[in-house]
Amino acid sequence: MLKQPSTSRPRWLNRTVLGIGLASLLSDWSHEIATTLMPAFLATMGVAAAWLGLIEGVSDGLSSFAKMASGYYTDKLPRRKPIAVLGYLVTALGTAAFGLATSAWHVLAARSVAWLGRGVRTPVRKALLAGSVTKEAYGRAFGFERMMDTLGAIVGPATAFLLLPLVGHHYPTLFALTLVPGLLAVAAIAFLVKERERTPVPHVSFGERLRLLPANYRRFLVAVGLFGAGDFAHTLLILLATQKLAPTLGATQAASLAIGLYVAHNVFYAAFALVAGWLADHFPKQRVLALGYGLAALMAVIVIFAPMNLPTLAVVFVLGGIYVAIEETLEDSLCAELVGEEHHGMAFGVLATVNGVGDFLSSIVVGVLWSAWGTSVAFSFSAVLFVAGALLVSRVRTTPA
User: CA 93 from chain center: how many Å?
Assistant: First the structure.
């Protein structure tokens, strides 16, 4: 009896999706250990807080530049995977190099190298992920990767706190241990990820490559940019919780509860990334993304008008985790759908750069407005941009203009 050909759909959770997810978890695990320890490490050098801001700002700026350049360059290569392996390796070595630092500028140099590698690998990783599944599974694939990445962000700080009593404050040893998950992330990309054959795009100028990206994608970028201009770093929510709870609970307990709320934020982020991916594959992506942007606006409105007690703050942090899960999963999967596979590197690079610039500007503006006029003005600024982004992205078409 002849065997009937299989009509089942290809599995979306294949070895490449699993490998990229594991690499995201392990690499985040590695550098989140270092990020958690970095402020205390700098304090042992007698360094002012301004150095921490400089280190983060310079590193994020280099990372944003690297994402754009990497996306443009790697679309012209027949194989993207070696660039991803190199990016993960540079991040792992740069992070471990913190342990060699004897002054703040050494930490700045190591962090900059690590974040340069992180920027180089980001659009390549996303292009490899999109190329490993069918269009119908973009949401689940990107949702899985975001979930794994966020699990690393939860496990990393927890590992740092567990290691401190065991190793003491011997920072070179602590930073050296980040090599274990960091190099395992390199191995996951090198040995699990399979890259499909592709035809590289012909060499054209950077400006011409930008013009080749579809009009719908450019409209999508405007919506992302508007939303991102109000999408402040959620460490500001930790500050909000600490300030609002301190008068009744005391500074120490308020700080502890604020950190606990942030852990809950990340747990909901990880949990809802897969939910967001499923929604992306079953409903119009631009409408699901608009829903996520709308939840961000709801969060801001609650901060403006509701009394800031512990139950209300818990709702704020939970909404924050859920909307970020939807935002990051849907932005990536919608980007992959709007642009042809041959231009995925460039498209993901530009998207990451727009997000990076937005993250930088929004946190500064919200922080300044907060300091000058209070939380109502600061979060009203964000809410207006969140609503504007939601309205614009809901009108983005996924069919050619």
Answer: 20
Residue 401: pLDDT above 70?
no
Looking at domain 15-195, its CATH architecture is Up-down Bundle (1.20)
pLDDT tens figures, 47-56: 655 676 677 7
Spatial distance between the Cα atoms of 78 and 176, rounded to a whole number of angstroms: 35
| DSSP calls for 34-58 | HHHHHHHHHHHTT--HHHHHHHHHH
> Residue 287: its pLDDT value, please?
95
Give me the CATH code for the 211-394 domain, please: 1.20.1250.20
Read off the pLDDT of residues 296-335 as tens digits, 9 standing for 90 and up. 999 999 999 999 999 999 999 999 999 999 999 999 999 9
Question: Considering the entire predicted model, what is its pTM?
Answer: 0.78
Structure tokens at 94: 């740069």
Tokens representing residue 40 in the block: 């205390």
Give residue 344's Cα distance to chain centre: 18
Which region, left, alpha or beta, applies to residue 214 given φ > 0 means left and ψ of -120 to 50 means alpha? Answer: beta
pLDDT tens per residue across span 203-225: 667 777 778 788 999 999 999 99
In angstroms, the CA 130 to CA 195 distance is 11
